[in-house]
Specification:
2 domains; alpha+beta; 34% helix; 4 helices; seven-stranded antiparallel beta sheet
Length: 163
């Protein structure tokens, strides 16, 4: 009787461990096109070595994403807050490079708390803003993108890509 109970207990533990190992194998399918997203950074000097900063931000949070299938395809997203004077000058300069357009942008979890809170209060999935040409920020390898002034804030979101 004790042998039967012991065998039964061992069989139960064995089947549980096999089932959990199969679940772990199916939970992580490989996606070759997945973009690798490193953690965000806040070093203004490092950002200034990657892009041109026509005005020095008071606060910055940024990160680069790299496509795992094609590492040469990169995307940079920076959230910057400028002084009121620099904000006005930046908008005037950006308007020289083309028309501004109303736009929306999704809030990412690493955005500053003020923007995350603004997004939650609005009940929308996105933040509203005005998109400008990022010409004054572009530096190789980046080729295109947009500079977005977020409504009701002193924040700008810079999005640049290499493709």
């Amino acid at each position: 009787m004790i042998k039967k109970i012991t065998v039964l207990i061992v069989a139960i533990f064995f089947s549980i461990s096999c089932a959990s190992s199969k679940e772990n194998q199916t939970e992580s399918p490989s996606n070759e096109n997945k973009i690798q997203t490193p953690s965000s950074k806040d070093d203004i000097a490092e950002l200034n070595s990657i892009v041109r900063l026509p005005y020095l931000p008071e606060e910055v949070t940024w990160h680069e994403e790299q496509n795992s299938k094609n590492p040469e395809n990169k995307r940079l997203v920076a959230v910057m807050r400028f002084s009121e004077d620099d904000e006005k000058a930046l908008i005037q300069q950006a308007e020289k490079h083309g028309q501004s357009q109303p736009t929306e942008i999704e809030v990412e979890d690493w955005f500053p708390p003020e923007l995350v809170a603004q997004n939650e209060l609005s009940g929308d999935e996105t933040l509203k803003g005005i998109a400008y040409s990022p010409t004054d920020f572009i530096q190789m390898p980046y080729k295109k993108g947009r500079l977005i002034k977020i409504e009701n804030s002193h924040y700008f979101v810079l999005e640049l890509s290499t493709d």
